[in-house]
Design brief:
The structure holds two protein chains of two kinds. By secondary structure, chain A is α+β, with helices and mostly antiparallel strands. Chain A has one domain: Mth169, Chain: A (2-Layer Sandwich), CATH 3.30.1280.10. In chain A, about 30% of the residues lie in helices and about 30% in strands. Chain A has two helices and three strands. Chain B is α/β, with parallel strands linked by helices. Chain B has one domain: Class I glutamine amidotransferase (GATase) domain (Rossmann fold, 3-Layer(aba) Sandwich), CATH 3.40.50. Helix content of chain B is about 20%, strand content about 25%. Chain B has a nine-stranded mixed sheet, sandwiched between helices. Chain B is globular, with a radius of gyration of 15 Å. The mean pLDDT of chain B is about 95. Classes of the chains: A alpha+beta, B alpha/beta.
């Protein structure tokens, strides 16, 4: 019985994220005001038999802990 | 001196890397297939530029787990010389052979131009044929070349002479920390840089400065 899981990967706090900056600058040009602190990351979705393996999977491959934070979201 | 040049699916500079190695007097070079763990007697390994495994997930992230890389990691632990160029540098960082990581350029653009690279430490196997402060003219071509290491680690690297090359004359093309262009491991036998020395070995393309890295390796090997 496998579980559907999601892993959210974000640029680490404090590391310049030029993609986030570019999106933040583009929004006002389209009339969307009042947006700040934009960051662009990755979403990884997977079916997994043993969700307890997810943290190790993230540390080893799905994220680079030196430059990225990850968050594991498992669905019931 | 027998060079081995790794070829991943998506590599594109391994041909030039082989040609550069072969310009070193008395040296030969041979391609090492990513799926084969046999280094075929190579006395030094070059991990070349390109887009290994499509750069999927993160640059260098998947290539790091290929059979050839397991052998390259073992080879480096035994003191073997390993040179990573551009994508090869990214792969070596992901493999943990070099400190830090490469992030998208500050300008988010692909940068392709000749840059001036200053030799910070010439007392390394990869810079032995150069002088401290010497400036090399070598091209860069990358989108993900912004070297990053946490401040504490940068301090450690500085103290241990691991910052080998910097972009000179305010010419940092990607926003890398401390203008870093190339770093080595603590032992000094693994070196990675974003500029492409293998594209600067023939006067036809404007500079032969890149060749010095390959000749340095051969001299260090003896």
């Amino acid at each position: 019985m496998s579980t559907r899981a999601r892993v959210l990967v974000r640029p680490k706090e404090g590391i310049l994220d030029p993609q986030g900056v570019a999106v933040e600058r583009a929004l006002p040009a389209l009339g969307f005001e009042g947006v700040s602190n934009v960051h662009v990351g990755r979403l990884i979705e997977l079916d997994i038999d043993d969700p307890s393996q997810l943290p190790a999977m993230c540390e080893k491959l799905l994220a680079n802990p030196l430059i990225e934070d990850f968050e594991i979201v498992s669905e019931p | 001196m027998k060079f081995g040049v790794v070829r991943f699916p998506g590599s594109c500079d391994e041909g030039d890397a082989v040609l550069a190695c072969e310009r070193v007097p008395g040296a030969s070079a041979q391609i090492l297939w990513h799926g084969d763990a046999d280094l075929q007697g190579a006395e030094a390994v070059v991990v070349p530029g390109g887009f290994s495994y499509g750069d999927y997930l993160r640059v260098g992230a998947i290539a790091r787990f290929s059979p050839v890389m397991e052998s390259v990691i073992r080879f480096s632990r035994e003191g073997g010389l390993v040179l990573g160029i551009c994508n090869g540098f990214q792969v070596l960082c992901e493999a943990g052979l070099l400190p830090g990581a490469l992030l998208p350029n500050v300008g988010l653009r692909f940068v392709c131009r000749q840059v001036n690279v200053e030799v910070v430490r010439s007392s390394h196997p990869f810079t032995a044929d150069m002088a401290d402060g010497e400036v090399l003219s070598i091209p860069v071509k990358h989108t993900t070349g912004r070297y990053y290491a946490p401040p504490q680690q940068l301090g450690f690297m500085q103290a241990h002479g691991q910052i080998v090359m910097k972009y000179a004359h305010d010419g940092n093309p990607n926003g890398s920390s401390n203008d870093i262009a190339g770093v080595c491991n603590e032992a000094g036998n693994v070196f990675g840089l974003m500029p492409h020395p293998e594209h600067a070995v023939d006067p036809l393309t404007g500079s032969i400065d890149g060749l010095k890295i390959f000749t340095s390796m051969a001299h260090a090997h003896g």
